[in-house]
């Protein structure tokens, strides 16, 4: 028979004497959520946040472009349709071309990303010329004034900046001797990268303006879709920015 004293001792005794199998957390190690590490009862889980941000950018750009192409394919064909079709390609390629450089770390990754970037921006260059030609010709044939709306004015500015940005980038990469050699050209990459973010912002701003045009709203009046796509790209792009690559001295 167990004595009352022993019973009291047993009650006061902890149920688990050895908790060595439980996860141990050090109070001297702060939890850091910015590096993609999250603590769980079984340990820490590491997330590749660069990949997560890249996915956000890709899904957002694809959502926007595919919605535009859906609209274009759902109406009776006329020449104007080529304008939003090509400009959606501009948005998709320009966005992807910028995002691919963000996650490159090793030399091999940087070389591969640069090749992909050049391909995407080449498509952007050709598409923006085609899209601009279509809208200019369409308005000229209809005896309509050019660049009267905010969308038209921002479109013209964005068109010119894309041309300048593409030519400047191509010069730095393919003809570094123009700026004094490869070393000086690499030193100017940060300026090209910074201006690239500005151009990308204008691309999206102009595209969002186009979604509020009367013709677009008559075919697809769901603002939340456009804002969702833009929001995903905004979060992914800002999250993927490496401040070290933007240092301008």
Automatic annotation (TrEMBL):
Q: How does it sit in the membrane?
A: Multi-pass membrane protein
Where the record annotates domain Cytochrome b561, the positions are 45-248
| Pfam families documented for this protein | Cytochrom_B561
Q: Which residues form a coiled coil?
A: none
Q: Name one GO molecular function term.
A: metal ion binding
Q: Which UniProt keywords are listed?
A: Electron transport, Heme, Iron, Membrane, Metal-binding, Transmembrane, Transmembrane helix, Transport
Q: Which cofactor is essential here?
A: heme b
Where is this protein found? Membrane
Identify this protein by name: Cytochrome b561 domain-containing protein
Residue intervals passing through the bilayer: 51-71, 77-95, 116-136, 156-182, 194-211, 223-241
Annotated GO CC locations:
membrane
Q: Which CDD domains match?
A: Cyt_b561_CYB561D2_like (cd08761)
Please report the organism this UniProt entry assigns to the protein: Rhizophagus irregularis (strain DAOM 197198w) (Glomus intraradices)
């Amino acid at each position: 028979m167990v004595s009352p004293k022993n019973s009291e001792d047993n009650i006061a005794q902890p149920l688990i004497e050895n908790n060595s199998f439980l996860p141990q957390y050090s109070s001297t190690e702060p939890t850091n959520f910015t590096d993609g590490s999250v603590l769980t009862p079984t340990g820490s889980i590491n997330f590749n946040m660069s990949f997560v941000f890249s996915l956000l950018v890709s899904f957002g750009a694809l959502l926007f472009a595919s919605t535009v192409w859906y609209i274009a394919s759902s109406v009776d064909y006329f020449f104007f349709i080529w304008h939003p079709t090509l400009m959606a390609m501009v948005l998709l390629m320009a966005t992807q071309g910028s995002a691919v450089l963000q996650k490159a770390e090793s030399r091999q990754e940087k070389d591969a990303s640069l090749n992909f970037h050049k391909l995407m921006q080449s498509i952007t260059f050709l598409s923006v010329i085609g899209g601009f030609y279509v809208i200019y010709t369409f308005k000229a044939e209809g005896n309509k004034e050019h660049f009267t709306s905010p969308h038209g004015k921002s479109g013209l500015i964005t068109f010119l900046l894309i041309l300048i940005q593409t030519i400047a980038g191509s010069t730095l990469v393919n003809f570094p001797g123009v700026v004094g050699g490869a070393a000086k050209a690499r030193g100017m990459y940060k300026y090209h990268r910074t201006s690239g973010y500005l151009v990308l912002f204008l691309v999206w701003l102009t595209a969002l303006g186009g979604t509020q045009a009367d013709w677009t709203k008559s075919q697809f009046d769901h603002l939340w879709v456009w804002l969702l796509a833009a929001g995903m790209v905004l979060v992914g792009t800002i999250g993927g920015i490496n401040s070290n690559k933007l240092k301008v001295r």
